[in-house]
Amino acid sequence: MLYKRKNKVHKEITMKICFIAIAMICLGCMLFAQTEANGLDHESVTEINNQEQNHEIVMLTIQTINEKSGLFLNSHLSDDFSFLNFRKPMVTTVLNQYLAQLGEVTEFRKISESVDNGNLTLIYEFDFSGNLGTRNVTFVFDENQLLKQLDLLQTEGQIIHTSPDGNPGNGHRHY
User: Would the pTM count as exceeding 0.90?
Assistant: First the structure.
């Protein structure tokens, strides 16, 4: 009896998987037909996918700010990502410390979009809780749709060089 029940459940799951696969194939055919009917070529479809991916990274940034953890963004950062004039490997530490001090993002809206030398720049307006209020946030993406630069509050960080005696000079780097 137990064998028949498992076999029945297995058949039901197999049928559901087949139905989903057929539905996905039909959806793909419909999307292809729609892109052909609307005159969209492969490049246009790719551009739409890139815009969706960039929007996803903006949403991950909001999640990162609200949850105070840069872990969500790490896989979406380019090798030359910069934040507050810091680059890898220090940038992730600085980013996490910075995010821990921000209020939550309560609302956001896209202000502008531009492309320069293959880099996409998106400017959003974020409404922060607390004393920060409304601020512009700039996202710069490279040609691989990875985040190349993030300007949250239009501030800059500095590396202070000190000499061994503690005075400013050409000594060790302190971040």
Answer: no
pLDDT tens per residue across span 3-56: 455 455 445 555 555 455 465 565 555 555 555 555 545 454 455 556 788 888
Peptide bond before residue 89 is cis, with ω within 30 degrees of 0 = yes
Calculate the alpha carbon distances from 144 to 100, 106, 122, 131, 148 in Å. Answer: 28, 29, 15, 36, 10
The upper half-sphere exposure of residue 65, i.e. CA atoms within 13 Å in the direction of its Cβ, equals 21
Distance, CA of 45 to CA of 174 (rounded, Å):
47
Residue 59 CA to residue 53 CA, distance in Å, equals 10
Please indicate, yes or no, whether residues 48 and 123 belong to a single structural domain of this protein.
yes
**Nearest-CA neighbor of 95 among 21, 40, 172, 175?**
175
Sign of torsion over alpha carbons 168, 173, 174, 175 = positive
Phi, psi of 104 (to 5 degrees): -75, 150
Residue 162 lies in a domain: no
> Does residue 138 share a domain with residue 71?
yes
